[in-house]
């Protein structure tokens, strides 16, 4: 069965790009438009990997990660922050919240796939 | 794997446009004295999102401007800086530039303008200066995943004003990361060698040079990183001991993993498996086929269906629309995926099909008139149901095209602000009824006329603060944009509390230009003069409302939407311009009339009454052609059979019917032979396959399947003047 | 649409193209079949005010408003009758749909590019500007018409010229 990935981003273009790239590579991808939507969708299903943006309306990425880590299903699922901010402060925030790693925007589909394969194969 | 990035361009353009619009709205709403932190955050987020997308899709010029803008906005939202009017101005300007840049990319071009550098410099200056506390910029040093580039180029490459441009170049490069100028001596003295440590791609560096000189002339080479554990693509990474995957931080090019964090078990497993697979994989080439069953080899991703295209190539056009795209609604509150983006074409196709359904029903109903309603009760019931359902369906489909007028109103806070400040006037804008819905096509076409009217009101209507004070008015003028639904129409009003129109001056001007006017013209007739070609009421021509070209264009644009304009004005109190528009351009409530053997459709909205003339009611007045004496007035007689050159036997005027119509050209009496029935008709363009016909605004298909022309009363009244 | 039909010189000499031939007066004409949408009988038309006499009016073709031109009137080819034998060729000219009344439709023929000779100045009813060439088929001579150019021309009055030149 195809691995399932949730991509959380308020930008439709980025979301589509991620989703399209990963689907082409054979993953099953679900999109969420912000942290809250991501949380709802994560609850309703069980994903193998979650990508989340940091800056989003309603709920930001770090909060989403914290909330996800509180769910039994997501205690150890890889969660990667997809963000334009590469500063150390943000990284340590993410790490404290329970993120598995980060990926800096802008990135290209190749990079994305490389990372996904590294993480979930 | 190659993914054609151009396929995402249109979505990016759409969302960037939405972000820019939202940013502008928020900026205009922002209370500088007491900025709402949420609003500051939202403004930041808008710029941030555009930057992210622009970087990803390779629009580096857009990314660069948003990056600089974001720096300022970030400091604002962190309260490191207090917002000033200047900052808002600069941000608005940057927004305009971004719009232009995006529009250019959409055309497959690049927007180049010296303004970009100016605005960027201004933004930078603003984000550095005036800090509340001297918070040092976050270390400008190379961000974590970073490469160093060696840039070598001829000292005279930048041409004559070399020094200045060199400084500009250095500043632009410093935007990207850490720049060291004149790094090594091992280049000829006529060449410069710089080093730039940055996270951006080579492309972005090339682009910066491209602004100033031919980037081909510049050697850009990547320096091998020393010390840092980063490997470019980090594939060797997993070679460590199996356990280390779990615990160690892994940092790669633009990507990292936190050692020991949740999820790392999974990563370690994957790495483990990959190592196994690799070994298996090696074995696989040497052993017999069938071996790979044990574990699937590391698969290359499925071949993309899309043709390979230059990734991030800024020049390629986005693919044509027509795709469905899940999208948050463009409103402030994202609504999950409860809305979808559908191309207008598809909606129009739907509207056409429903139109066909309505016509088919009309045909059936007409055929059924020959049947006995009692004996064929079921058919009649069915027809009645079909009619109701197709009407409901039509309305539902039409509502898809309906958009709140806020889409056009929203630009006006900006227009008013800019226009007022250019004229040194104080003006506030009040919006009423922004949720009023009308057809998308009309909304787009309403923007220009409204823009003109609003600017005109500020320019000619609203007085200067000084004048207002002298007249005992509040110093600040007010423009009100109001929209509402009234009896199947949308009414849009632009009103101001300014000086009002000057009857004497308009009359003098009309006399001077030889514009014909009735004797003792009413105020309304005088006000209509401002719509005459070449008529400007301003004493001095200004840049804002131009030279009187425009008001006539405004009226023509509105007429083209089957709309009507009226003016009310009171000296010293202000002017109100009322635009009445149909809800949609797709259907029309009309009256079918017969002229000779032809059937025409007359829009119901223009009909006042219809009368059967009495002998002597129609007469010919010298210089005015045929007129009809109705009540107190003489109305011009519009004889359709004459205008359309239809052959008919001489019919006495008493046997015809006069339909009194209200047109933008004033009232008139339309002479027809018979009134047939009221219909709701589907408007079809004649111009799809033919061309524009004077006096006809479109065509429709009647219940018998035949085509009927829809009358354009404004044009008919004009035509009747020409053919006495 | 059919981009390659706009410039017949680009046609590979190996492949042949199909043409619909019709008669007008004493002459036989051929048009690229890719421009032909359908052939139908004559329906009652709705007149268009102040249009040239050869534009009969418009018809409703499945919801599309289609103008109908009578080529016999256009080229003054004598008596014109409308009965159940009257033929209308519905053309699709770069997306615009136009109906054309002719004396009769005769054939669909396949021609190689080299079978079409360039047209000398001759006295056809049609201006040579709209003629791509002549083809000889057994004993018949067929005048190959550039129907797109003809229908877009000013003299047909089908298109607003300002718009046409802007396109």
TrEMBL record, chain A:
Modified residues (4-aspartylphosphate): 53
Stored Gene3D superfamilies: 3.40.50.2300
The protein's name: Fis family transcriptional regulator
PROSITE patterns: RESPONSE_REGULATORY (PS50110)
GO biological process, one term: phosphorelay signal transduction system
InterPro entries assigned to the protein according to its UniProt record, in alphabetical order: Bact_response_regulator, CheY-like_superfamily, Sig_transdc_resp-reg_receiver
Organism in which the protein naturally occurs: Marichromatium gracile (Chromatium gracile)
UniProt keyword terms in alphabetical order: Phosphoprotein
Recorded superkingdom: Bacteria
TrEMBL record, chain B:
Biased composition (Pro residues): 294-307
A GO term, aspect molecular function: phosphorelay sensor kinase activity
InterPro entries from the UniProt entry: Bact_Chemotaxis_CheA, CheA-like_dim, CheA-like_homodim_sf, CheW-like_dom_sf, CheW-lke_dom, HATPase_C_sf, HATPase_dom, His_kinase_dom
Record field: compositional bias (Low complexity): 308-337
Highest taxon in the source lineage: Bacteria
GO cellular component assignments: cytoplasm
SMART domains: CheW (SM00260), H-kinase_dim (SM01231), HATPase_c (SM00387), HPT (SM00073)
Phosphohistidine PTM positions: 48
Disordered as annotated region, ranges: 239-340
Histidine kinase domain ranges (all copies): 377-585
Domain CheW-like: 587-722
Record-linked PROSITE patterns: CHEW, HIS_KIN, HPT
Broad class of enzyme this protein falls into: transferase
This protein's UniProt keywords: ATP-binding, Chemotaxis, Kinase, Nucleotide-binding, Phosphoprotein, Transferase, Two-component regulatory system
EC number: 2.7.13.3
Any matching Pfam family: CheW
Record's function text: Involved in the transmission of sensory signals from the chemoreceptors to the flagellar motors. CheA is autophosphorylated; it can transfer its phosphate group to either CheB or CheY.
Name of the protein in its database record: Chemotaxis protein CheA
Source species of the chain: Marichromatium gracile
Automatic annotation (TrEMBL), chain C:
Entry annotated with the keyword Cytoplasm: yes
Top-level taxon of origin: Bacteria
Localization terms from the record: Cytoplasm
Cross-referenced Gene3D superfamilies: CheA-289, Domain 4, SH3 Domains
Domain CheW-like: 16-156
Main localization, broad class: cytoplasm
PROSITE patterns in alphabetical order: CHEW
InterPro entries in UniProt: CheW (IPR039315), CheW-like_dom_sf (IPR036061), CheW-lke_dom (IPR002545)
CDD domains noted in UniProt: CheW (cd00732)
Keywords, sorted A to Z: Chemotaxis, Cytoplasm
PANTHER family referenced in this protein's UniProt entry, alphabetically: CHEMOTAXIS PROTEIN CHEW, CHEMOTAXIS SENSOR HISTIDINE KINASE-RELATED
The protein, known as: Chemotaxis protein CheW
Species: Marichromatium gracile (Chromatium gracile)
């Amino acid at each position: 069965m195809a691995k399932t990935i949730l991509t959380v981003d308020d930008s439709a273009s980025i979301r589509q790009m991620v989703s399209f790239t990963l689907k082409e590579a054979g993953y099953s991808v679900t999109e969420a438009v912000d942290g809250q939507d991501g949380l709802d969708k994560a609850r309703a299903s069980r994903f193998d990997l979650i990508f989340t943006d940091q800056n989003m309306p309603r709920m930001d990425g770090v909060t989403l990660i914290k909330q996800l880590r509180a769910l039994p299903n997501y205690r150890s699922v890889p969660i990667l922050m997809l963000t334009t901010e590469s500063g150390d402060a943000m990284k340590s925030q993410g790490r404290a919240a329970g993120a598995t790693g980060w990926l800096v925007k802008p990135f290209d589909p190749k990079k994305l796939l490389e990372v996904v394969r590294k993480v979930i194969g | 794997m190659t993914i054609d990035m151009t396929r995402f361009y249109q979505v990016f353009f759409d969302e960037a446009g939405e972000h820019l619009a939202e940013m502008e709205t928020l900026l205009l709403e922002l209370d500088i004295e007491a900025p709402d932190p949420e609003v500051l955050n939202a403004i930041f987020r808008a710029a941030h999102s555009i930057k992210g997308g622009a970087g990803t899709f390779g629009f580096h010029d857009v990314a660069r401007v948003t990056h600089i803008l974001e720096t300022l906005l970030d400091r604002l939202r962190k309260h490191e800086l207090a917002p000033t009017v200047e900052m808002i101005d600069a941000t608005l300007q940057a927004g305009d530039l971004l719009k232009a840049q995006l529009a250019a990319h959409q055309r497959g071009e690049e927007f180049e303008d010296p303004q970009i550098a100016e605005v960027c410099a201004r933004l930078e200056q603003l984000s550095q200066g005036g800090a509340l506390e001297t918070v040092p910029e976050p270390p400008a040093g190379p961000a974590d995943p970073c490469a160093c580039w060696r840039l070598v180029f001829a000292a005279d490459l930048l041409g004559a004003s070399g020094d200045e441009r060199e400084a500009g170049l250095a500043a632009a490069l410093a935007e990207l990361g850490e720049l060291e100028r004149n790094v090594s001596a091992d280049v000829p003295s006529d060449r410069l060698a710089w080093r730039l440590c940055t996270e951006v791609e080579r492309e972005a560096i090339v682009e910066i040079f491209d602004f100033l000189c031919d980037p081909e002339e510049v050697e850009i080479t990547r320096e091998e990183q020393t010390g840092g554990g980063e490997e470019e693509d980090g594939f060797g990474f997993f070679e460590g001991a199996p356990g280390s995957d779990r615990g160690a931080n892994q940092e790669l090019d633009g990507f990292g993993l936190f050692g020991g964090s949740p999820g790392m078990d999974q990563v370690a497993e994957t790495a483990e498996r990959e190592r196994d697979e690799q070994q298996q994989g090696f074995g696989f080439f040497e052993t017999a086929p069938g071996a790979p069953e044990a574990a699937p080899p590391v698969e290359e991703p499925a071949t993309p269906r899309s043709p390979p295209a230059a990734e991030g190539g800024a020049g390629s056009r986005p693919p044509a629309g027509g795709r469905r795209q899940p999208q948050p609604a463009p409103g402030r509150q994202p609504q999950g995926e409860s809305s979808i983006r559908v191309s207008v074409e598809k909606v129009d196709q739907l509207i056409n099909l429903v139109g066909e359904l309505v016509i088919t029903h009309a045909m059936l109903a007409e055929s059924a008139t020959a049947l006995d309603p009692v004996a064929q009760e079921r058919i009649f019931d069915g027809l009645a149901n079909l009619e109701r359902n197709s009407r409901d369906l039509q309305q539902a489909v039409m509502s898809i095209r309906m958009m709140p007028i806020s889409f056009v109103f929203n630009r006006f806070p900006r227009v008013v602000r800019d226009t007022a400040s250019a004229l040194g006037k104080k003006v506030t804008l009040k919006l009423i009824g922004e949720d009023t819905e009308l057809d998308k096509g009309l909304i787009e076409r309403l923007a220009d006329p409204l823009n003109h009217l609003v600017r005109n009101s500020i320019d000619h209507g609203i007085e200067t603060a000084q004048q207002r004070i002298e007249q005992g008015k509040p110093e600040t003028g007010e423009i009100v944009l109001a929209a509402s639904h009234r009896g199947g129409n949308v009414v849009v009003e632009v009103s101001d509390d300014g000086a009002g129109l000057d009857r004497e001056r308009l009359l003098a001007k009309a006399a001077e230009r030889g514009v014909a006017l009735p004797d003792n013209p009413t105020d309304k007739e005088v006000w209509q003069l401002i719509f005459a070609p070449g008529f400007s009421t301003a004493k001095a021509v200004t840049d804002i409302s131009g030279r009187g070209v425009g008001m006539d264009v405004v009226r023509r644009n509105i007429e083209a939407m089957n709309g009507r304009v009226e003016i009310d004005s009171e000296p010293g109190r202000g002017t109100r311009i009322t635009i009445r528009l149909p809800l949609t351009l797709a259907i029309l409530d009309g009256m079918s009339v017969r002229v000779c053997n032809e059937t025409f459709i007359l829009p119901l909205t223009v009909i006042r009454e219809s009368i059967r003339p009495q002998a002597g009611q129609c007469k010919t007045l010298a210089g005015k052609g045929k007129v009809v004496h109705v009540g107190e007035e003489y109305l011009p007689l519009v004889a359709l059979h004459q205008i359309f050159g239809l052959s008919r036997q001489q019919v006495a005027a008493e046997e015809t019917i006069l339909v009194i119509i209200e047109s933008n050209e004033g009232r008139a009496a339309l002479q027809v032979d018979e009134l047939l029935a009221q219909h709701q008709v589907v408007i079809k363009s004649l111009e799809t396959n033919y061309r524009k016909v004077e006096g006809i605004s479109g065509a429709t298909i009647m219940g018998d399947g035949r085509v009927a022309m829809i009358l354009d009363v404004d044009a008919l009244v004009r035509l009747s003047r020409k053919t006495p | 649409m059919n981009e390659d039909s706009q410039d017949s010189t680009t046609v590979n000499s190996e492949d042949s193209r199909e043409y619909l031939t019709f008669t007008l007066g004493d002459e036989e004409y051929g048009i690229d079949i890719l421009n032909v949408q359908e052939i139908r009988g004559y329906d009652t038309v709705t007149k268009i005010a102040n249009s040239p006499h050869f534009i009969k009016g418009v018809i409703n073709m499945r919801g599309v408003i289609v103008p109908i031109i009578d080529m016999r009137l256009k080229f003054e080819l004598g008596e014109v009758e409308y009965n159940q034998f009257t033929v209308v060729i519905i053309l699709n000219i770069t997306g615009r749909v136009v109906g054309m009344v002719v004396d009769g439709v005769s054939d669909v023929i396949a021609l190689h590019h080299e079978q079409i000779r360039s047209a000398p100045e001759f006295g056809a009813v049609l201006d040579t500007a709209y003629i791509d060439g002549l083809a000889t088929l057994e004993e018949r001579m067929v005048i190959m018409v550039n129907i797109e150019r003809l229908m877009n021309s000013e003299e047909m009055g089908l298109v607003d010229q300002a718009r046409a030149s802007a396109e």
